[in-house]
Amino acid sequence: MALISDGRFIEDAWRRLADEEALPKSGKFIVSLPRLEHAVEVLGPTATFGVIVPNTTEPSALIAALPRLDLISIAFPAFADGRGFSLARLLRRAQFKGELRASGRLVADQYPHAIGCGFDTIEIPDDLADRQDEEQWRAALNAYSMSYQRGYAGRGSILEARRKAVRS
Amino acid sequence: MPVFKHPQILIASNLTDGEVVFLGSSGWERDHRRARVARKAEEATALEALGKRDISANHVVDVYLADVEIGSDGAPTPLHYREKMRVKGPSVRLDLGKQAGEGAL
Amino acid sequence: MTAVDLRVAQRPNAPMTTYRYDEYDAAFVSERVAEFREQVNRRLSGALTEEEFRPFRLMNGLYLQLHAYMLRVAIPYGTLTARQMRRLADIADKWDKGYGHFTTRQNLQYNWPKLVDTPDILESLADVEMHAIQTSGNCIRNVTADHFAGVAPDEIEDPRPTAEFLRQWSSLHSEFSFLPRKFKIAVTGAEHDRAAILVHDIGLRIVKNDEGEIGYQVVVGGGLGRSPFIGKVVGDFVPREDLLAFLEAILRVYNRFGRRDNKYKARVKILVHEKGIDEIRAAVEAEFAAMDRSVFAHDPEEFERIAAFFAPPPYESLPATSALLRAAKLETPAFANFVDVNVGAHKIPGYAIVTVSLKPIGGVPGDATSDQMRVLADASERFGFGELRVSHEQNIILPHVRQDDLFALWSMLDAASLATANAGLVSDIISCPGLDYCSLATARSIPIAQAISKRFSDMSRQRRIGKLGVKISGCINACGHHHVGAIGILGLEKKGQESYQITLGGDPTFSASIGEILGPGVTAEQVPDVVEHLVDYYLAEREEGEAFIDTWRRIGHARFKDVLRREGEDGADI
Description:
The structure holds 3 protein chains of 3 kinds.
Chain A lengths: L1 E4 L2 E3 L4 E2 L12 E4 H10 L6 E5 L6 H4 L7 E6 L6 H11 L5 E6 L6 H6 L4 E4 L1 H6 L2 H8 L4 E2 L8 E2 H10 L1
Parallel strand pairs in A: 3-4, 4-5, 5-6, 6-7, 7-8, 9-10
Antiparallel strand pairs in A: 1-2, 1-8
Chain B lengths: L7 E7 L5 E5 L2 E3 L11 H16 L3 E11 L5 E3 L2 H8 L17
Antiparallel strand pairs in B: 1-2, 1-4, 2-3, 4-5
Chain C lengths: L2 H8 L12 H23 L4 H9 L3 E3 L4 E5 L5 E3 H14 L3 E4 L5 E3 L7 H10 L16 E2 L14 H11 L14 E4 L13 E7 L5 E7 L11 E8 L3 H15 L10 H8 L1 H14 L9 H9 L14 H9 L1 H10 E3 L5 E6 L10 E3 H14 L3 E4 L5 E7 L3 H10 L14 E2 L14 H10 L3 H7 L4 E4 L13 E8 L2 E8 L11 E2 L9 H15 L6 H8 L1 H13 L5
Parallel strand pairs in C: 6-7, 7-8, 16-17, 17-18
Antiparallel strand pairs in C: 1-2, 2-5, 3-14, 4-5, 4-13, 8-9, 9-10, 11-12, 12-15, 14-15, 18-19, 19-20
Helix pairs in contact in C: 2-3, 2-5, 4-13, 6-10, 7-9, 8-9, 11-12, 13-14, 15-17, 17-19
């Protein structure tokens, strides 16, 4: 797997825990959604852990655990399945401040959308990273200087800019 | 695997310009009469493998086998009306498309 | 003084005609062109596979069709300037085959562009403030509106500022670019629906409440295609300040819960049908309540900025009727027929709305040659403030013509074979491209339209028949709106042959209804006979003032079915 952050391929400091693996004492690790409740229960307040969730997850199922989570990874079963974008928005709305990760076969051209909806990092399989290198991800990030929407992250809003121009 | 009933040719669209092309004995042809004809299931499978290769090589897209009949001159003609349309051009504009001698690779 | 006032001051007598880009719009569209150029390069190099490239090319209007690529250019709310129309003609000549096809969603399609040329075409479009953004793909499509917007006498408010507002909001929306399926929005501000809002994913009707405030009735879940539905009201009166938040709430509910397991069940109409409108309304209202609406807070200044572009052109003060027009009608019967059929009432005295039919007898519905496009551009400049509209009936509208100029305009159109006097009549047929061009089609539709048109080539007979919507689709996706045709025709494949299913009683307006199937499918050759029998039966049965659909509603479907059964038993050609 390759990890993209701020337009660069970086080392992943996180480890995805297999379901049969015991919860580690230290290090950054990611559990599956069915193990989340147990992890929150047994892990101490200093433990650094995250969860990977399907894109159909109800945000309410994560609300209780949000303050404990340092990372939420949302699985994209297909790159054209946009449910993860809405879930990311809802988790940000619920004040999740940790790392939000999109995991799946996302293509570089979706990067600005992912950032817009609140994702920080994108995790893609290696074969995809071979075809779509760092340069393409960076180019996608910089493809647009502004966006027409308001309240989406990453780029300046054209509406805000016009409002400023009119009122100044 | 679907039952092999009729001879078949491999039909595709050329990536760069969208022109309809047919796999011939030495590459893709714009004239279906130059298409290589599969007369057995194994030959059709071999055509499909070549099609996959050229999809991977980004030469063609939308590749599939089409049933044909063989005329007295040995040239294949598609059986289905959809592919009959593709080897000619729009029936409402006889001045356009392959039927008008247009298109080149 | 605002920026808008400055613009008006700089161009005192030149009407805006339509929305004009500011520096932000121009930068956005040019970045979109640059992005697509790179996407094409990456497709050719293999960095993008076809599967990956497909949604991105579709979101730029580029399809792969039966014979070639097809590029669908957006004509937002169907409004064009003369300069834009000329550019469409130039592109047709330079990169295509000298013609274009106007569609039922007020867009224009080129049937033969090369993939490698499309970035240049898009650049040429951007130069005249046009694009192909979101004319396809599983995203919010180009927003359509009443083609008589701003000039119709029955209008509460011009729907185009709203449509433009939504066009901008929906452009490359981060959250809603990968929806379960396509999403179409139409807006009307009139008492009569000419935008078919009840058969869109979202239909917006501008309304006034008892306090005289403007708001929107929001209808969701209409649509044609495999399973046609009439939309249902999800918001009775949404104030303008809440419109964006309300739409965002609907889209979020749809994006999360719309079906993705079966593409034929993925449209919002199926979600509304399966969950019921009450559950959907509750979900939308809950989402709306949870949103930070300050983010969407309505900007009256921004709305006014947009609305100013659609200000009326500098009309002259004219008498309500024209003596010149009256005299010309008496002198030239062909012109009189044109005026009676293709010319409509305008809200300003002394002006008229002219429909230029793109349905010559036996022609391809919606097609125009580049020369015809140029004639239309010239005509709009000479007689109509340089403004043109595209209607969802695939015709061109000149929205503000002085009645005094009608004869000169007609003469100019007639010389370019653009004066067919059949707007709304039986030969003004809506037709999708069908299997002559489209890779999804199961049968041809254009030749069917041509055959019906030729069958009714006697124009006086057409006028006697009166308003009659014939609509033809070449597959179940229903781009030809057959479900809402008074006579609808659907082309299917049956046992390896093209076969046509006929429906009666469809209606796309506020009295919307979905057509009912007449009987077993017929062959292409039989279609004109069937249509002719149906029309003859209607003529025999109709009461004073009844259109085809009225007679059908009054006497019922069964009696029309009987006609065909009788004809069949008599050994006739059905």
